[in-house]
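Dear H.,

Thanks for agreeing to be a second pair of eyes. The structure we're designing against is below in token form, covering all 190 positions.
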């Protein structure tokens, strides 16, 4: 039996209200730990890197709690976090690459040094590292890319006008579109 207990014996309310050890000493309910992680940890962390959150504190906390509960004991590869996406289904490759460039593994390591000190996400506990990785990837889906300064940087790098967004082009090649619009080739391929 792991510290999670038998999965069948633990229901949502018992799991959520179970006291856990926070930061090597304070006993608090798991729901309080998740609230702190989201309000004082994740949201300010993401926003400090030039992103705007698209989910409220309540939504994010609920989604993180749900992800922890349904994926307890599972590896990162087996876990399922395909719920509560706010902007995650239409993320361009450029915005995704920018996210992983700006908030790289070193940035996350600094974050987890402070916030990874309780059983669900402690790397020294069973599947703690898996939940850290899950959260790192899940937070990408909780960002409003349209309003984020980092998206403006990506758009400027790609040559889009002020206010023009890569997502507006629906995957069409902007260079071919501009050539077609200008009738550069007379409508024919050379």
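And this is the sequence the design step returned. I haven't edited it by hand at all.
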């Amino acid at each position: 039996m792991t510290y999670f207990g038998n999965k069948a014996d633990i229901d949502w309310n018992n799991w959520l209200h179970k006291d856990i050890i926070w930061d090597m000493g304070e006993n608090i309910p798991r729901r309080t730990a998740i609230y702190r992680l989201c309000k004082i940890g994740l949201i300010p962390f993401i926003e400090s890197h030039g992103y705007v959150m698209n989910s409220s504190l309540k939504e994010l906390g609920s989604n993180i709690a749900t992800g922890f509960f349904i994926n307890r004991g599972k590896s990162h590869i087996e876990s399922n976090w395909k719920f509560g996406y706010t902007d995650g289904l239409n993320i361009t490759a450029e915005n995704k690459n920018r996210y992983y460039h700006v908030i790289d593994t070193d940035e996350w390591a600094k974050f987890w040094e402070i916030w990874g000190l309780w059983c669900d996400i402690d790397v020294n506990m069973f599947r703690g590292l898996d939940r850290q990785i899950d959260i790192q990837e899940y937070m990408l889906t909780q960002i409003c890319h349209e309003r984020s300064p980092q998206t403006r940087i990506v758009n400027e790098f790609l040559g889009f006008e002020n206010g023009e967004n890569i997502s507006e082009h629906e995957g069409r090649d902007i260079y071919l579109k501009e050539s077609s619009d200008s009738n550069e080739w007379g409508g024919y391929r050379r």
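Two observations from my side: The chain has one domain: 10-182. Confidence is low (pLDDT under 50) at residues 1-6.

Warmly,
E.
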